[in-house]
Write the structure tokens for this entry.
Amino acid sequence: MVENEGLRRYVAHAILWIGIAIVAFPVYLAFVASTQDNAVIANGQMSLWPGGHFIETYYKTLFVGSSGTTREPVGMMLLNSLIMALSIALGKIFISILSAYAIVFFRFPFRMTVFWIIFITLMLPVEVRIYPTYKIAADLNLLDSYSGLALPLIASATATLLFRQFFMTVPDELLEASRIDGAGPFRFFKDTLLPLSRTNMAALFVILFIYGWNQYLWPLLITTRDDMQTIQVGIRKMIVTSDALTEWPVVMATSILAMLPPVLVVIVMQKLFVRGLVETEK
Amino acid sequence: MQKQSVFTSRWLPWLLIAPQMIVVLVFFYWPAGQAVRQSFLLQDAFGLSTVFVWFENYKELLADPDYFASVVRTFVFAAAIALSSLSAALLLAVMADKPLRGVGVYRTLLIWPYAVAPPVVGVLWIFMLNPSLGILAHGLRAMGIDWNPLLDGNQAALLIILASAWKQISYNFLFFLAGLQSIPKSVHEAAAIDGARPIRRFWTITFPLLTPTIFFLIVINVVYAFFDTFGIIDTMTRGGPAKATETLVYKVYSDGLLGGNLGSSAAQSVILMGIVIALTAIQFRFVERKVTY
């Protein structure tokens, strides 16, 4: 193509950089704020360059806690978020790979009924059944517990469908071959299917980890004790007081810490992330 | 589709599906069923007795101007978020689809906001646009705009829409880029040889070929605007001022918090379920025509 390519390229680069700037600016501002003095920010005289309070603010945020309404240090919240995200990701992968294995590699009565029972859960996010779910969690004594945080969010079909789709593509010959070698269902699963599913599991893990880490409404309802709070819920409690009392550097440091793990996962494991994203939306 | 070669065992498959079935029945079907059941019941003020009232709760809800306003608001939000976020993402994706140097870097720098949680998005944006200390708010004041989203409902709504669209750009960008890359280059070259200018090539060739991706993304964005904006709204405006940013999901949440009418809140949930099921059905109609990465 022989059009005015040079100029067009410059325009494209410029538009992309503007896009990146728009996307990055709020986060940059949050970081800058987290390194400055609260009084300066509250006066609305914040500088656009990082200040000198980096270590002080982050130490306070992680280990001491803000002096406002929540005194819980963010380190604890990070741990809670991590446990919740890992339980959701691993729990979902675990129960899904087993049920997909049963549905694809076994014949049993009501097999399709079981499949549809699981399939329908794909449609309804936890938000639409939030209070009845809360009631059940309360009845089962799951309030303020890690299982209560994770279990209702595990109850959905995305991962099962993904594994089912993948298992369908596994050639029959593989099963025949391991049968001839004398392998039963356990050995076939462990020695053949699991190694083949590794990439799928990793891609799924990346997506589910981000999904779990970023949960908000459910943890907000089910945690009442400060030491069970996840970081997303903790942030909101920090800005509950009026502007003047909010410790903005701590709030902003918490925001940065809250987004750091999932953002790093996206950047470092970009290939798996993209793959997981595209496959779970199918 | 069925496998020819399978295992036979009477008890093993049941053992394998048991964990998922238990979780799904206890935490999905039971609460969803409860919501449907309660939506047909009316409870007295003390919670002592309940009566079966058929569709009374729904009728009352649909006659409630507050609820109607919330329905309209939610759809307006969804349309505004989808439109702004999709157009920004499409522009960026078209630019990133060109044979530029460093496209991989651009992609990385544009997709990471996907991982920022909605409540964090809310905090970031309220910090920039907080009337008393936000940097952008000062800029708006300097331009003579009376900016106060804490009092002005329209400004609050705009704030929610902007922040929600901002977060969704990365997701849309990723899928648009995938869609663009699946269009064969030869199509563009043929049109270029025929003398079509780049902008015309975009509207007559690229855009029509992208329609499956666009439809798919519209559904995803609407679902996002319905459900995932909860965290953004809760940290920025809490549905206020004067309910100006109260979406359907936020209303279910805040009505339930007040602990008032159980039947009405259940009916709201059931209506939401209906909307999601409809959206999912629409999405599945387009599923076979979707992009592959």
